[in-house]
Amino acid sequence: MSLNAEPSRSAGLDRLDGFVERAGGRYAARRKFDLGPGRHDAVSGLSPYIRHRLITEEEVVRRVLERHTPEAAEKFIQEVFWRTYWKGWLELRPSVWTAYREAVRQETTRVASDESLARRLADAAAGRTGIACFDAWIRELNDTGYLHNHARMWVASIWIFTLRLPWELGAELFLSRLLDGDPASNTLSWHWVAGLQTRDKTYLARPDNIERFTEGRFHPAPGTLSETAIAVSGPTPPPPGPAPEAPSIPRQGRVGVLVHREDLSPEWLIAASGSTVVGLIRSPTGHDTDDTLPARFTAGALDDARTRLRQAGYDVDDIGRADDTIGNVEAWASVRDIRTIVTPHAPVGACRSFLDGLTARARAAGHDVIAVPRAWDTAAWPHATKGFFQFKRQIPALLDRLVD
Hints:
Helix content: 40-55%
Number of domains: 3
Order of helices and strands: HHHHHHHHHHHHEHEHEHEHEHHH
CATH class of the largest domain: Alpha Beta
Shape: globular
Radius of gyration: 21 Å
Structural class: alpha/beta
Number of helices: 19
């Protein structure tokens, strides 16, 4: 993955086509090796496209199974389902996201009044800690918007246990800089490294592990990294709540389809709604002026969705360039005489918070908002009640149901 990652569905499909042959034994054997920028050939590089559903999990798994047996591609298929699992786990426990956002706010306030912490945080975020491997990974993250998954775990561990920085601010750094930054996968992975996801089970970055899986690129000297990883204190995760179900779409009154960055292949929902009127939310969280790699990738992905939908004959309106994005959606619905707004269900995160606010205001104004989850999510998310190793027992049945 590099700065050359084109934010389009066609680029995602091309990358998928180029990877399928390597999704079997080669992936299983080499997936943990981080050989550095420009050398991530053992992994797929599909995550930014899947994150915005420019291409979908179902498409990816289906293409892989056209070339490999489920047994041969087991490790890769499990990685696809890890993302689904994290989304489902957080979907069943949305208060974990709320608590994380509040902790980010509190830690940011603390940094503002603690010069020493602010300096250490700035050095870590810029790759100036003096820990060669950590600094190189941070520079790669800043320059490319990507890190190998193994490097993400090492960085998170060093951030928490060696540098002793707040895990929430590390998770926030990743979320703001990764092209594939996903609220569930990112937050809960940091949660897990810190020992909050599985109580007291932490992840320790070890010099021998780093040397092995970077093939000697890095070999931290003894004493460079913390030799212990004591779990961060925090509340026990709450019990799971209900998973969303697929609602019916009313056929009374005019229907408009509202498209957002969480699902940029919305043709399935447009067809189900029977509508040709589409509203595209440009910026559901108000970051129109961000000039970061993720913001530019997301903007390009939205542009690609708009172009594809217009070429397919849909009437697409851009929404959300002003500060009051919710007001713009309300105005769009009124001008278009839309009674019901149908939108892809957004997993827990910033976009979901926006849509929750929109739903309340739209209903007060006489419009209805119906969020429709994909079949992939409604089938898999109810199984994300415990750990992944229990969830993965359901993968064969999910493949039979969703892919065959």
